[in-house]
């Protein structure tokens, strides 16, 4: 691969235990914030919303709250949240919660400054492909899970439910201006959510390492994130109060987010977006995990070159193996071990109501909505091949 790349990372990241309190003193981009949180109530129950609002108040900032965001967020809530931001006179947006919430905050920030509906600006599927010429309100990200890394990238993933379209989108304006990555906010995350979000970060790093647009900085960060998640995710799943594990995973997730800024996901994400667009009850990390062994086994067979590096980062002993193919399949072995160690090995697509007869339509949907990621995948793929991957994952 020729060495040619762009590096743009405008987000200021405040990382470390207890850093959230600096929300009370740091320079902020406005005087009235829309705080976006999820519909589950976790931000209120854990006291995180009250803390954020109080720190903002101490910093001379008033705030209002939009609290309807779903685990697989939808465009209707983006448009509604943006209308509320306008009505309330908000001049910046705070995303407080997991990746879905921060993604929604980014999209709301765009629509608070641009006319029409959110889907008018989406590229892919039934999206209008317009350019949001007015940019976006400034965004402050406060992640409470170690999963998407959205605090360090411009991407936002939203679903248009009526069309079964789940599409990632973003631009320079949707990078957070400021992100607080405070591992103390992640101590309350339950084991299953810890496992699923951790695997989302893991696959961001894996895919960024394989993508045709990878670069030296993303390679370095991706391999470290893969190593950290393999080591510390099982610990955090077993003992959520382990501060070292939470801190290492928080950094690995942010690393993987930076990788998403410098490199990109590949078609593994295209498949999962299509699956959870059809079946929104499937959490993103769970969907990625259920597809992963089938997807990456197919890819290893056809493009083994970079898989031994990842297997080694996961702690596999490759020295006794002579064949490159065997070394590459060390990654699949390590992946299966990781999935089992965090208790996700019994997850099945059928348990979420996925129907075998939908698999080809899901494969076609992945090309229609997120076809751009197929172009970044190191091996060309057809709808028939993707359907076969889904079939194996289903079985």
Task: Pick out its properties.
395 residues; alpha/beta; Dehydroquinate synthase-like, alpha domain; six-stranded parallel β-sheet; 13 helices
Task: Describe, in plain words, how this protein is organized in 3D.
- With 395 residues, this protein is α/β, with parallel strands linked by helices.
- It folds into 2 domains: 12-186, Rossmann fold; 191-394, Dehydroquinate synthase-like, alpha domain, CATH 1.20.1090.
- 47% of the residues lie in helices and 11% in strands.
- The chain has 13 helices and 8 strands.
- It has helices at 42-45, 48-58, 75-87, 99-111, 191-210, 216-238, 243-262, 267-278, 284-302, 307-313, 324-341, 359-370, 383-394, and strands spanning 12-15, 32-38, 62-69, 92-97, 139-143, 156-160, 165-169, 178-181.
- Helix 6 runs antiparallel to helix 7 (243-262) and helix 9 runs antiparallel to helix 11 (324-341).
- The chain is globular.
- The two termini are 36 Å apart.
Topology:
Layout: E1 12-15, E2 32-38, H1 42-45, H2 48-58, E3 62-69, H3 75-87, E4 92-97, H4 99-111, E5 139-143, E6 156-160, E7 165-169, E8 178-181, H5 191-210, H6 216-238, H7 243-262, H8 267-278, H9 284-302, H10 307-313, H11 324-341, H12 359-370, H13 383-394
Parallel strand pairs: 1-8, 2-3, 2-4, 4-5, 5-8
Antiparallel strand pairs: 6-7
Provide a quick synopsis of the model.
The chain is an alpha/beta fold and 395 residues long. It is built from 13 helices and eight strands. It has two domains: 175 residues, Rossmann fold (3-Layer(aba) Sandwich); 204 residues, Dehydroquinate synthase-like - alpha domain (Dehydroquinate synthase-like, alpha domain, Up-down Bundle).
């Amino acid at each position: 691969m020729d060495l040619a790349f762009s590096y743009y990372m405008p987000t200021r990241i405040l990382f470390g235990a207890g850093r959230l309190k600096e929300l009370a003193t740091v320079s902020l981009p406005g005087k009235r914030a829309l705080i976006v949180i999820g519909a589950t109530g976790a931000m209120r129950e854990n006291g995180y919303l009250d803390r954020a609002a109080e720190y903002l108040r101490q910093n001379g900032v008033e705030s209002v709250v939009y609290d309807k965001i779903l685990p697989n967020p939808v465009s209707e809530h983006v448009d509604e949240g943006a209308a509320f931001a306008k009505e309330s006179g908000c001049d910046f947006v705070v995303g407080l919660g997991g990746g879905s919430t921060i993604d929604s905050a980014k999209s709301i920030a765009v629509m608070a400054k641009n006319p029409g509906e959110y889907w008018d600006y989406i590229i892919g599927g039934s999206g209008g492909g317009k350019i949001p010429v007015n940019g976006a309100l400034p965004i402050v990200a406060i992640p409470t899970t170690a999963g998407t890394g959205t605090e360090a990238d411009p991407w936002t993933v939203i679903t248009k439910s009526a069309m079964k379209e789940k599409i990632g989108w973003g631009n320079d304006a949707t990078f957070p201006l400021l992100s607080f990555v405070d591992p103390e906010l992640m101590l309350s995350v339950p084991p299953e959510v810890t496992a699923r979000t951790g695997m989302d970060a893991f696959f961001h790093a894996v895919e960024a390492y394989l993508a045709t647009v990878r670069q030296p900085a993303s390679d370095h960060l991706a391999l470290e994130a893969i190593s950290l998640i393999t080591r510390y995710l099982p610990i955090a799943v077993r003992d959520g109060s382990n501060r070292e594990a939470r801190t290492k995973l928080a950094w690995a997730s942010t690393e993987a987010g930076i990788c998403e800024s410098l490199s990109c996901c590949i078609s593994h994400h295209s498949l999962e977006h299509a699956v959870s667009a059809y079946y929104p009850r499937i959490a993103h990390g769970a969907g990625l995990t259920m597809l992963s062994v089938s997807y990456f086994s197919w890819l290893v067979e056809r493009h083994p070159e970079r898989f031994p590096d990842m297997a080694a980062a996961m702690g596999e002993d490759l020295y006794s193996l002579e064949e490159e193919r065997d070394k590459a399949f060390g990654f699949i072995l390590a992946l299966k071990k990781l999935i089992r160690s965090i208790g996700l090995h019994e997850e099945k697509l059928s348990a979420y109501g996925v129907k075998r007869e939908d698999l080809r339509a899901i494969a076609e949907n992945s090309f229609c909505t997120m076809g751009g990621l197929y172009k970044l995948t190191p091996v060309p793929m057809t709808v028939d091949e993707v359907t076969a991957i889904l079939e194996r994952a289903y079985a």
